[in-house]
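mind reviewing this stuff:

——
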Amino acid sequence: MIQTAAAANLTLVQHPLVQHKLTLMRRKEKSTAEFRALLSEISLLLGYEAMKDLRTELQEIETPLTKTMQPVLAGKKLCFVSILRAGDGLLGAMLDLVPSARVGHVGMYRDEKTLTPVEYLVKLPQDLAQRRVITLDPMLATGNSAIAAIDRVKQAGASKISFVCLLAAPEGVNNLTSAHPDVPIITAAIDDGLNDNGFIVPGLGDAGDRLFGTK
């Protein structure tokens, strides 16, 4: 069950196209190419939701007919932080939306015995304190990797951070909100929970393996 504080921090994207494409992704017979394409398509829709409150300012431009004041994004551009390796499945679509965004990476793999994250890479832009950061990972299971990655992002100076994922378990939502109550979560679905191995059920399997064809 999702706790009250976590529910207030959560945006569930229930657009029919998102839900339809997610159902297609869950099917075990989907090929790597189909899975990858569907994830990219859903990522675009999640990105629109995650960035709907970006600040704009008016700028004078000239159309073929006249000069006019029109809105453009204001301030420093975004930074997308991909939690490797599966986070890169969302990254491409996000960059399609905001090609000028900076990109950071936090590499984590899960110790299968303890379910705790093991860090192997951190590469972040130096000016994160001046940027809005969107962290990316398809799955929010236990929440341990997301928490550790956001710890790193905050240590680098970021203060305005959100987390975008494809699927979440109640345990992950609760844990992430408890550790980082200032980080909004945007997801396409909240599943039933975790199995004994820490995988989301019903889920869609290991997103990284399905994305890269490594299983």
